[in-house]
Design goal:
The complex is a heterodimer.
Chain A: H1 2-30, H2 33-41, H3 48-58, H4 74-77, H5 80-85, H6 102-137, H7 142-156, H8 159-173, H9 189-219, H10 222-229, H11 234-263, H12 266-271, H13 277-286, H14 290-318
Chain B: H1 3-17, H2 19-25, H3 28-44, E1 64-69, H4 84-93, E2 98-100, E3 109-111, E4 121-123, E5 129-130, E6 141-147, H5 175-179, H6 197-206, H7 217-223, H8 227-245, E7 261-265, E8 268-274, H9 280-283, H10 294-300, E9 322-328, E10 332-337, E11 344-345, E12 366-367, E13 372-377, H11 381-389, E14 395-396, H12 403-406, E15 407-409, E16 415-417, H13 419-423, E17 427-432, E18 435-441, H14 453-465, H15 468-475, E19 480-482, E20 506-509, E21 512-515, H16 518-527, E22 543-548, H17 553-567, E23 572-577, H18 580-589, E24 594-600, H19 607-610, H20 619-622, H21 633-642, H22 649-665, E25 668-680, E26 684-685, E27 701-702, H23 704-714, H24 720-745
Parallel strand pairs in B: 1-13, 22-23, 22-24
Antiparallel strand pairs in B: 2-3, 4-5, 4-6, 6-8, 7-8, 9-10, 10-13, 11-12, 14-25, 15-16, 17-25, 18-24, 18-25, 19-25, 20-21, 26-27
Helix pairs in contact in B: 1-3, 14-16, 21-22
Classes of the chains: A mainly alpha, B alpha+beta.
Chain lengths: 325, 753
């Protein structure tokens, strides 16, 4: 397994270079260094000298990808791409274009993102699995039909409606928790409840229906029929056999979500004024801060690759038949 | 604690103390006990305190103002910060020599740290003093001598901390010391120091620092003697310093003299500028000209500080009434009173009506009144509005979504608060902003631009056809007044009534200004060579192009409306939506045809608006703020004359003549001056819109006890949904349990597969 992981990590390097190149290309197709300078210098009284000065002091006065005026290797290394990208691979994120240290900001914003995302994932997973098991257990009954209808209804509602409706009903009309905000330590709890509730409820429809199909697929297999034929109680069949085997696709889905936990939720963080990494990325894009954008894309890619490796490892744990070679 | 909670606590005690009971109830007792303890904790919180309070409960009756920021400030360095969301902070922390009177209108400059508003001395090119009433053309230099008040101290700050030997404590931080430093508050020791004249000189020099990128360097280089060369000198010196010293390099500005500024003595300094520039006084009321500290710059420049985000850009050092004690722009920023503040009193004079409005109740009392101001990050308007209604923000603007909830517009256009606002005791204040939004024609464009009679008539026809009043009514909920010229109300040169209307677009009637009928526009269009919207020569329909960065769903309605306005003249308007960068590029290159633009005043002087039409300020040729690239020699020469004049009848006459020229040429469809609507709760006092003063926080006062009482009254939690939810869960479990039992009891053949 160790050799497999090393090999996968090796594959990651060209992928990350490619992603970095693509990010760089896409960003500079839309924003030129002059645009970035104007954005950072403000809208009023920006002189061409100020633009040139800003570019020079932030390292954006060089050619983007190839420096035709340089010689030999410098043609590739004396460019914005090389100078801005190389340090990423040793996780030296440097400063944002407005001068703040990116690693510091990420360290500050990581916890608020996780504070919302981790409970949302865990509680959401428990609720979805429970609800899906309930529907599978009572398949073909009014519980199942009602549950499926409810799931379709929940899936049909947009995320924005959940957020605004949740804020309106729970925080404004019922006044049960703050509408938005965030705080450190235990004081964060009262701010977390509402986004977590909304995150969980908004995911019930899709999650439960998805898991229900896994459970029903397993329920129709021969080994389940055999278990029943042996006289096992239905609850035992469900929890001991069906749930365990249905865990494989569930684990795959959950592990692939792990990077998203770290990156935060763009909508939830924005509406609940949570200072997480989702809103950090959005701020970076809005402010045309290439330093932040490239770091967040790079970090997201790294985490996604790690997540996929974790999926493979998780397969071997939940299904002993699978071997990583 | 309520009765329910007491009963549960008694039960818990009974369970905990009775081994017999526990034995009997095993195995449920453990689960039950935990559930009861949790319920007890929840219910014990059921006192009068609101559950939805977003701030610590212990602060409920403290003298704290709660405000917000929607976008994190990018820069708090006074030489660099320019945006309104940045000046909100720097204005309270830094003290330039001058400020605006809080209550008086028109806006009036008064001393802040200065002893008096300085009067310039004028010199000719040989340095001889000229009389005050001399013609501006004869003035080679203006000299301002500014005397600051002694005894003004800086806020406590580690940059000023000294050890027992009197040396700066944190001047040379090593890696070991830095290891325990993460935020500025981690420095245990602080110190202070008296404000001296050199601090102001130092700050003016900082405007030219190559790494600060001050937005006013270009403008000030035109005036402050030697500043342009100085910025070049500093640039090369900085390169050398970086090469020699690497990370942590410090460019000592005290070693580089600047010709146009001079320390006269400890409390007096001098600024020498080219020619006559009376507007300099307004700049002296902005944080750009607040004191800068050499010690602070050196402190922040040390190696390792940047990596911790400990920079002057994030931790300002000032002498103002407040200091920034928490700077987490990702979540919250907190201003607290500066214990070293030199003291100031609330103004004793105001305008008629101010006394009746209670704005002079605190006359002569020492400011600031508020101990602490908490700014929370709030990106979305809906939570902001709802929290304001709950009493958790002390003031609020009104977004379009909430307008109908807050404001009633009467039949004759009068504005009043809705009953729900009045019930809450909310107060409304309105003020016409010192801003203008206009639709501009690119005067370099071959169709709508140029000085030909045909193009002028085309522009005038469109000016008449586009109904700004309708636009204000539909899209701004009436929050604006149609502009008759470039100068908004409250700025010298603005004229009310018949004298101030644009007679090319409006007619004066007893009811006021009335837009000319569409027939006039059609006639002008025909005279321009486009009868019925078709080119008289080719017969082809006239197609015009509107360049805009606004392409979202909100903009669509506005753009559809604009197309309909053009369609009234049978002119096809093509919307060329683009992103903001490309739009800027088009404007810089002069390839846009028609566009919308705005300007927010830097200072209350007509020069700051009329320069938007000044030829040498054109965007394409001079990279200036004249986005229409309008050039009219007569207008330009009048501008040159007007900008140096003192306010008075002569200046007003020149402005009137300039406006007549611009209205005739119609480089803009004059657009509107936005109206600012601000709501405030009953406990917030001394709130008067002042669109120029950026340090008005010190005058505000709150009544925390009243706020706490009303917050509690408005925010009592509604508990029944919790009970209902619990009940519903139980009800749902019963049939499920029955069904489960039934299924368990079935034979295998009955179980559905």
């Amino acid at each position: 397994m160790f050799a497999y992981i090393i090999r996968r990590l090796g594959y990651a390097i060209p992928i990350l270079i490619g992603i970095n190149l693509l990010t760089f290309y896409l960003f500079f197709v839309v924003n030129s260094p002059d645009d970035m300078a104007r954005m950072h210098l403000g809208m009023k009284r920006v002189t061409p000298e100020a633009v040139e000065n800003w570019k020079a002091s932030h390292g954006y006065d060089k050619p983007l990808l190839i420096n035709s005026e340089a010689s030999n290797l410098d043609q590739l290394t004396d460019t914005i791409f090389f100078e801005k990208s190389l340090k990423l691979f040793v996780f030296d994120f440097g400063s944002s274009d407005d001068g703040r240290d990116i690693s510091f900001d990420i360290s500050q914003r990581m916890l608020p993102s996780l504070a919302i995302a981790v409970p949302s994932l865990i509680i959401g997973l428990l609720v979805n699995i429970t609800f899906a098991l309930l529907m599978a257990f009572f398949r073909g009954t009014y519980v199942d039909y009602t549950g499926v209808i409810l799931c379709v209804v929940l899936m049909s509602i947009s995320a924005m409606f959940y957020i605004i409706g949740g804020q309106y009903l729970l925080a404004k009309v019922f006044r049960l928790m703050p509408i938005s905000g965030f705080d450190g330590g235990l004081d964060a709890l009262k701010f977390i409840i509402l986004p977590v509730v909304i995150g969980v409820v908004s995911g019930i429809g899709a999650g439960s229906r998805w898991y229900r199909t896994f459970f029903l697929e397993e329920a129709g297999k021969d080994y389940v029929r055999t278990a029943r034929a042996k006289g096992l109680a239905e609850s035992l069949v469900l929890f001991r056999h069906i749930l365990r085997n249905a865990l494989i696709p569930i684990v795959t889905g959950v592990v692939s979500l792990l990077p998203l936990l770290f990156m935060g939720s763009l909508l939830l963080e924005s509406f609940f004024a949570v200072p997480g990494l989702g809103s950090y990325t959005i701020d970076g894009i809005q402010n045309q801060d290439f330093a932040i954008v490239r770091v967040m894309v790079f970090l997201g890619s790294v985490l996604y690759i790690i997540g996929l490796i974790m999926v493979d490892i998780a397969y071997t744990i939940v299904d002993p038949r699978i071997r990583l070679t | 604690m309520n009765t329910g909670a007491h009963i549960i606590i008694i039960v818990v005690h009974a369970l905990a103390n009775s081994s017999t009971t526990l034995t009997m109830l095993m195995p449920l007792a453990g689960v039950l006990r935990h559930a009861i303890v949790v319920a007890c904790i929840v219910l014990s919180a059921c006192d009068d305190r609101p559950w939805n309070r977003p701030y610590p409960a212990e602060d409920a009756d403290r003298n704290i103002l709660y405000s917000l920021f929607q976008e994190r400030p990018k820069h708090l360095d006074p030489a660099r910060s320019y945006s309104s969301n940045e000046v909100t902070f720097t204005g309270q922390i830094y003290e330039p020599p001058l400020q605006y009177d809080y209550l008086k209108r028109p806006y009036e400059l008064i001393p802040l740290t200065a002893e008096a508003v300085p009067a310039p001395r004028y010199l000719d090119s040989s340095g001889q003093q000229l009389p005050a009433a001399v013609d501006a053309d004869e003035i080679a230099f203006s000299v301002y001598d500014i005397t600051i008040r002694p005894g003004i101290m800086y806020q406590p700050h580690p940059a000023f901390a000294r050890d027992q030997q009197g040396k700066l404590r944190y001047r040379q931080l090593d890696a070991e010391e830095l290891a325990s430093i993460h935020v500025l508050g981690d420095f245990k020791e602080t110190g202070s120091r008296e404000l001296v004249a050199n601090d102001y000189i130092y700050q003016i020099k900082r405007l030219a620092h190559p790494q600060i990128h001050s937005p006013i360097l270009g403008l000030m280089s035109e005036y402050i003697v030697g500043l342009e060369d100085y910025s070049r000198t500093l640039a090369s010196a900085h390169e050398k310093t970086i090469a020699d010293e690497g990370d942590g390099a410090f460019l000592d500005l005290d070693k580089f003299p600047l010709e146009g500024v001079e320390v006269i003595d400890r409390y007096r300094y001098r600024i020498k500028i080219h020619g006559k520039y009376p507007q300099l006084l307004y700049w002296l009321a902005m944080p750009f000209f607040a004191p800068g500290r050499h010690a602070a710059d050196r402190f922040y420049s040390q190696a390792g500080m940047q990596q911790r985000n400990i920079t002057l850009d994030w931790y300002p050092v000032g002498t103002g009434p407040y200091m920034l004690t928490v700077n987490n722009p990702n979540r919250q920023m907190v201003l607290e009173t500066n214990p070293n503040f030199h003291g100031e009193v609330y103004p004793s004079e105001g305008m008629p009506g101010d006394r009746e409005a209670g704005l002079l109740d605190d006359a002569g009392k020492p400011v600031p009144f508020i101990d602490k101001v908490v700014f929370s990050l709030e990106k979305e308007t809906i939570p902001y509005w709802n929290k304001f209604l709950q009493g958790y923000y002390d003031t609020s603007g009104i977004s379009s979504d909430s307008f109908d909830q807050a404001i009633n517009i009467g039949n004759s256009g009068e504005v009043s608060l809705t009953d729900s606002m009045l019930t809450q005791g909310i107060d409304l204040s309105t003020a016409v902003s010192t801003s203008i939004f206009y639709t501009g024609f690119n005067m370099l464009d071959p169709v709508v631009g140029g000085n030909t009679e045909a193009a002028r008539k085309l522009r005038l026809a469109l000016s008449i056809a586009i109904n700004i009043e309708e636009n204000i009514s539909i899209f701004l909920n009436g929050r604006g007044i149609p502009a008759q010229g470039a100068i908004p109300p409250g700025i010298f040169g603005y004229e009310e009534g018949e004298a101030g209307i644009n007679l090319h677009v409006y007619d004066w009637t007893p009811q006021g200004a009335v837009r000319k009928p569409l027939e006039v526009a059609k006639r002008l269009l025909a005279e321009a060579g486009y009868p019925e919207g078709r080119d008289i020569n080719s017969g082809k329909p006239l197609v015009l192009y509107f360049d805009t960065p606004a392409t979202g769903p909100d903009a669509k309605a506005r753009l559809d409306w604009l197309m309909k306005q053009f369609a009234k003249l049978n002119i096809q308007l093509v919307i060329r939506g683009t992103d903001y960068n490309r739009f800027q590029e088009k404007m810089l290159k002069g390839t846009a045809q028609i566009f919308q633009w705005g300007w927010n005043a830097d200072y209350p002087d007509p020069e700051n608006f009329l320069f938007l039409l000044y030829g040498p300020n054109s965007k394409v040729e001079h990279n200036g703020e004249n986005a229409s690239n309008y050039v009219n020699e007569k207008f330009d020469s009048l501008f040159d004359q007007m900008k140096d004049m003192e306010n008075g009848p002569q200046r007003k006459a020149v402005i009137r003549e300039m406006m007549d020229i611009a209205r005739y040429d119609a480089p803009w469809i004059w657009g509107y001056f936005p109206k600012q609507f601000t709501l405030r709760h009953v406990w917030l006092k001394n709130s008067k819109p002042n669109l120029m003063a950026n340090n008005a926080l010190k005058y505000k006062r709150i009544e925390p006890q009243l706020r706490k009482q009303l917050q509690q009254q408005w925010n009592q939690p509604v508990r029944w949904p919790l009970y209902l939810l619990a009940g519903l869960l139980l009800i749902a479990l019963v049939p499920a349990w029955i069904s489960y039992r039934r299924q368990q009891g079935m034979s295998a053949i009955q179980v559905k597969h």
